[in-house]
Fold this protein.
Amino acid sequence: MINIHRYEVVENEHLYGPGKRLLLFTQGCSLRCNGCTNQHLWEFGKGVDATTDEILNQCNDMDGITLHGGEPLDQANALIELIRELKRQGKTVVLFTGYIFKELNKVQKEAWLSSDIVISGRYEERKRNIYLQFRGSTNQKVFTHKGKYKDYKIKDGQTVAILSFNEQGEMQSRGFRTDELEQLLNEISKDNK
């Protein structure tokens, strides 16, 4: 079982990878980077458990899956079956991880090496840069080491934020928020109290 916060369909290459993707937010993170925008995903076991088959059923008309977190590689033993099956089906995998390769165990390395694009490295708040594709800080690296995207060119220089509302009418934001957007969100938050 994979403990997830949620999944959704996305088509935003700048944030989550090329094509139509299933974006899977895993629940739980042992790294807990200062300034992380996904602190609600740090605690283990607070999500819902999903089987590999349940997730694969959501991927039928997708180019692939993007594994985000939390920290996906903290659940590598559960995720590896999903990654193997996706690759058997010819789907692509984009992996966001705070780990660097030399920190990984055998199963985590298999997950990394099976992924088409890997975004690696802990978020460092003092190195924040909202104009980097996939990355939030300048120390993070992008690896396009195999498969369909081995020659993929990173497109830095723009920023993207996605605002959405859940069923309860609460606003959610993902991506790279400019200072102006932060100010607007704070004002909206104050007005709604």
Q: What stands out?
A: Residues 160-193 form one domain. Residues 96 and 119 are 5 Å apart (CA to CA). The beta strands are 2-10, 21-26, 48-50, 64-68, 92-97, 117-120, 141-143, 161-165, 171-175. The radius of gyration is 16 Å.
